[in-house]
Amino acid sequence: MSTDTMAAPAARTARAGGRIRRRRSRGEHPPFRLFHLVLYLIMGAGGASAIAAYLWVINASLKTNVDFIGTSPFAITDTWSFGNYLEAWQTAGVATYFGNSVLVSVCATAIGVGFAVLAAYPLARVRFRGSSIVLAVIVSGLMVPWMVTFIPLYLTLQDLGLLDSQLGLILVYATYNLPFNVYVMVGFMKTLPRELEEAAAVDGAGPASAFLRVIVPLLGPGMASITIISFLNNWNEFFYALVFITTPDRMTLPVGLWQLNQAATYGSQWVTLFAGMMITVLPVLVVFAFLQKHITRGLTAGSLK
Fold first, then answer.
1. Average pLDDT value for the chain
2. Cβ atoms 65, 271 nearer than 8 A
3. What's the burial of 263, exposed, middle or buried (CB within 10 Å: 0-12/13-18/19+)?
4. What is the number of other CB atoms lying within 10 angstroms of the CB of residue 279?
5. CA dist 156 to 144, 161, 206, 237, Å?
6. d(CA 154, CA 11)
7. Which long-range CB contacts under 8 A does 116-122 form with residues at least 24 apart?
8. Nearest to 189 by CA among 303, 302, 304
9. CB 238 within 8 A of CB 244
């Protein structure tokens, strides 16, 4: 193959890049295509349906049971019964479920993120034979379905005396999120220049000191992303909490809502259930709304050089 033939694709790429830079410098935007319109319509429809669902739940939670049963489900309430939230919080036990979810989710997230950082550092920064195999084994945990794990986990917690305890649920949640956390942190750590550790070694810092004083302060975006995602997963997890926790005072919010659903089915306390749903989803919406930039930045940092 001649040199001119090999240089042709590079020249075309350079010309295309030059045209894009000139268009951006003049304030011009790329041409709008029909595909963009279809994509925006689909995304807008998805967003509108999600907002409509939240508005419907808010509207239902502010009705009385008589209005909810006797009127159309889509009728706008005129009672504004904010006492439903107080009843759900105090009488229905949502306050207890909420506290249990905060305790379990925060502790499991802290343990999972801490172990993920410690495991990712040697896999990403230390050269040793078989590191890729170790990483593949850890990441393979993402491909194991939960249906395969809950029976061994149940028996293990039973043998350790941690069944029906919040500590057992914390350890299960921390382990469940570990493969994803390690995978993200390995990709993020590989983007950091190795000269940082070399400079720390020249200054007399050992491996542990370089890790704590040089590497850890730079892991903010990556740690923020896995922290938020792990917390949301732990907060919304239902099946493990249903199987491993049987005492009502130790149940988390998803299981507590399931209990409220049973009460609503047989006792017609629907508005209490919807009020509990809004109390459950509010922290998730607040956390994601304020920290979504950290999630995006942390997850994409590992793909950029």
1. 83
2. yes
3. middle
4. 20
5. 17, 9, 39, 20
6. 62
7. 116/177, 116/178, 116/181, 116/182, 116/184, 116/185, 116/226, 117/185, 117/216, 117/219, 117/223, 119/178, 119/182, 120/181, 120/182, 120/185, 120/186, 120/188, 120/189, 121/189, 121/211, 121/215
8. 302
9. no
As a residue count, the chain comes to 305
Give the relative orientation of helices 94-125 and 270-301 as an angle to the nearest 10 degrees. 10
pTM: 0.78
Helices (H), the chain: 3-25, 34-61, 65-70, 83-86, 94-125, 131-139, 146-160, 166-189, 195-202, 207-210, 220-236, 239-244, 253-267, 270-301
Q: Which residue has the tokens 């107080």?
A: 86
Read off the pLDDT of residues 182-214 as tens digits, 9 standing for 90 and up.
999 998 888 888 888 888 888 887 778 888 888
For residue 262, CA distances in Å to 185, 255, 282 come to: 41, 11, 22
Crossing angle of helices 94-125 and 131-139, in 10° steps, is 160
Q: Which among 236, 226, 251 is positioned nearest to 281, based on CA atoms?
A: 236
157-172 CB burial, b ≥16 within 10 A, e <16: beeeebbebbebbbbb
Q: Which of the 8 DSSP states describes residue 77?
A: P
- Rounded to the nearest 10 degrees, what angle do helices 166-189 and 94-125 cross at? 40
> Furthest-apart CA pair in the chain: how many Å?
83
Percent of the chain with pLDDT over 90: 31
* Percent composition of the chain: helix, strand, coil (DSSP 3-state, to 5): 80, 0, 20
Q: Are 207 and 166 in contact (CB under 8 A)?
A: no
Q: Which residue in 178, 166, 160, 175 sits closest to 244, CA to CA?
A: 166
Nearest to 255 by CA among 45, 144, 91, 96: 96
Residue 50: predicted pLDDT: 87
First to last CA, the chain: 31
Cα of 251 vs its chain's centroid, Å: 21
Which structure tokens are listed for 285?
Answer: 């919406």
